[in-house]
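User: For my dataset I need records formatted as: sequence, then structure tokens, nothing else. Please produce one.
Assistant:
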Amino acid sequence: MRTLKLFALMLVTVFGLNVAACCGPDKTEIQKTDIITQPTVGKQLEDLNNAYKSGAITQQEYERMKKEIIEKGEK
């Protein structure tokens, strides 16, 4: 009888460890990196045009920034 209880206790312990191992927290570290996306040249020009049309920037600023965006896009 005592052997049966000991066997049952060992069985429960082994089963519990297996469940904890497969369902517990992952031991491997996942490295997170911040992904910074750069808008496309077209999107930048569209946003710039919207800023100009809304009066947020002057025509001179618009022309200067447009030139910069296009030059950066060509690289």
